[in-house]
Amino acid sequence: MSTNLQRAACSVTALALGLVAASAAHAQDDMTMEERMEIAERIVDEHLQPSVLSREEQLEEMRWFIEATEPYRGMDITVVSEPITTHQWESEVLAEAFSEMTGVNLTHDLIGEGDVVENLQTEMQTGRGIYDAYISDADLIGTHVRYDTVYPIEDYMNDNPDLVLPTLDLDDFINLNAARSPDGKLYQMPDQQFANLYWFRYDWFQREDLREQFQEIYGYELGVPVNWSAYEDIAEFFTEHVGEIDGERVYGHMDYGRRDPSLAWRFTDAWISMAGGGDTGLPNGRPVDEWGIRMDEDGHPKGASMSRGGATNAPAAVYSLEKFIEWLENYAPPEASGMTFSEAGPVPAQGQIAQQIFWYTAFTASMTDPELPVTDDEGNPKWRMAPSPHGPYWEEGMKVGYQDIGSWLLLNHTEEDARAAAWLYAQFTVSKSVDTAKSHEGLTFIRDSTIHHESFTERSEALGGLIEFYRSPARELWTDTGFNVPDYPRMTQMWWQNISDAVSGNVSAQEAMDNLATEMDELMARLERAGAQDSYPVRLNEERDPQYWLDQPGAPKPELDNEKPQGETVSYDELIEGWQNESN
Q1: What is the rounded CA–CA span in Å between residue 397 and residue 116?
Q2: What's the average pLDDT block by block, 10 residues per block, for the chain (584 residues)?
Q3: Is 174 helix (H, G, I), strand (E, B) or coil?
Q4: CA–CA distance, 295 with 539 (Å, rounded to integer)
Q5: Domain parsing of the chain, residue ranges
Q6: What's the angle, vertex CA 341, arms to CA 276 and CA 290, rounded to 5?
Q7: How far is CA 143 from the centre of its chain?
Q8: What is the pLDDT at residue 30?
Q9: Residue 86 and residue 352: Cα distance in Å, rounded?
Q10: What contacts 455, CB < 8 A, 6 or more positions away?
Q11: Are 512 and 321 in contact (CB under 8 A)?
């Protein structure tokens, strides 16, 4: 076919497709409320069961969405999130259901978490629209409050009361404070959340022969490790002393170490805090947080390096990196050091891993397949989850672990109607009509009513402690990255690059953390000089001898004489019983 004929054919095809699309849009515009409610009934019955609402209450919410979206029918709206199970279901089921029911052409894109942050950063810097709304971690709260680029959810709701679902019920959301500024304003609306917990093979830990062998070698009970000493002993035990179970090579630890942006999450998601590197106080330690950044009482970041009162390069942080490297090299499968977060995530489900100190509960949904070697013949898990152990610098009153809280975010520069339509979809994805069914798909809870729904009581035995954890007050001790971090997108890049240098052996752990602390201070100094932040700007401390700060109470903390105290474990069954008693 000649070029001209090809162009003509393409033009005819494009015209035909355009006419089909226009016809479909026109058909959507011409639908009656009764026809849309028939679609809503089908959606409720096929996709949105079970629910904390009655069917009639669900249909009332659907009617509200149909009426509220009337001005935006036919619009093309695109939102974005990372591709975890929860968001895959939103993209594949909820976006299509919302579009069919309301006539808004909603596309829910899935891209890597690093790409989400990069696109968001580009929009914030340029003011040019890429997406109409984002699901982005509430970890960026320190960035959003300090730069005038975000339209806070609370302000948007107050400015547009007619676009707020009457039954949204923000009081039903858990950990809502993670998305609030220091003065209490809500900047983002949670869509999903998951914690990093300790994961282990309960069936192996219960074997009498292994328990006796562990007791003989280490002098205490094999159980859930309370401290890093016990975790290390258990890792060594399964890797070196057990070595093989049922003819399969087993390992006492799992992690990942490839030079990749996901290596930053491994550390910024509270690894140093778990070691005990920050200060006491919830949600993030005051005045020094889990990144090692010092902040004064008025919300001004003061520095990351010890010379400015920070703890990013303090002994606890260096210790934590040394242990990360040591355990990866000695107790994980050889291929683990070449894996990224997404590649390493499925490995425990393959049946060779005895325990993992840092395991995201977002993987729970993919760990319940009855065909996996980590479930029994009835589909029940052979594994359990428990609180992660803490390092020797940790003390009572510190956060225990990290909570990832993916939250809806609106930007100032987004076109008004597009932002409104995206906001309506956002509310649809977290509505009481939707949330229980969505939580059964992804197991990433945001509503207290969903967590306590009878359907999860019935399912709890198959979820390895997840329901007991989220029903207990203990969940409040797992928090996201805090307000101390003044520029999350740029700072997180520094973490993975410097951590990678140490993991690859190019520099020592001390050199890596020194370089990281210096780079963060240099960025904060540039922010301070430029006056780049409208609220709670950086005000760095003057540099002084680090010993001055090591001599002060709290972080940065001086090096311990003994970084491996006696290992300590606890019975898993007693731990769960304690959680259940706390939640009653």
Answers
A1: 33
A2: 38 41 51 96 98 98 98 98 95 98 98 92 94 96 94 98 98 93 94 96 98 98 97 98 96 96 89 95 93 96 98 98 98 96 92 95 87 89 94 94 95 97 98 98 96 96 93 90 94 95 97 98 96 89 97 97 97 86 68
A3: coil
A4: 9
A5: 3-193+405-458
A6: 20
A7: 17
A8: 79
A9: 27
A10: 50, 436, 440
A11: yes
CA 285 to chain centre: 19
Which residues have a Cβ under 8 Å from the Cβ of 408 and sit 6 or more positions away?
133, 134, 135, 153, 188, 189, 190, 191, 423, 426, 429, 430
Q: Are 430 and 188 in contact (CB under 8 A)?
A: no
Element (H, E) at 466: helix 466-471
Q: What angle do CA 446, 452, 458 make, to 5 degrees?
A: 120
Q: How many CB atoms lie within 10 A of CB 545?
A: 10
- What pLDDT is attached to residue 26? 45
Please say whether the beta carbons of 408 and 489 come within 8 A: no
Gyration radius (Cα) of the chain, Å: 25
Contact between 421 and 34 under an 8 Å Cβ cutoff? The reply is no
| Dihedrals phi, psi of 8, to nearest 5 degrees | -65, -45
Count of all residues that appear for the chain in the document = 584
Q: Which of 354, 141, 396, 371 is nearest to 243 (CA)?
A: 354
Task: Of 487, 484, 509, 512, give the one whose Cα is nearest residue 498.
Answer: 512
Predicted confidence at residue 12, as pLDDT, reads 39
**518 is written with which tokens?**
């210096």
Task: List C-alpha distances in Å: 462 to 50, 98, 338, 365, 456.
Answer: 18, 31, 32, 10, 10
3-state secondary structure of 10: helix
Q: Which CATH number fits domain 3-193+405-458: 3.40.50.300, 3.40.190.10, 3.40.50.150, 3.40.50.800?
A: 3.40.190.10
Q: Which residues pair with 192 in a beta bridge?
A: 406
- pTM of the complete model: 0.90
Determine which helix (DSSP H) or strand (DSSP E) holds 570, and give its type and residue range: strand 569-570
Residue 168 burial by Cβ neighbours in a 10 Å radius (0-12, 13-18, 19+): middle
Q: Which among 515, 517, 518, 539 has a CA at the least distance from the CA of 527?
A: 539
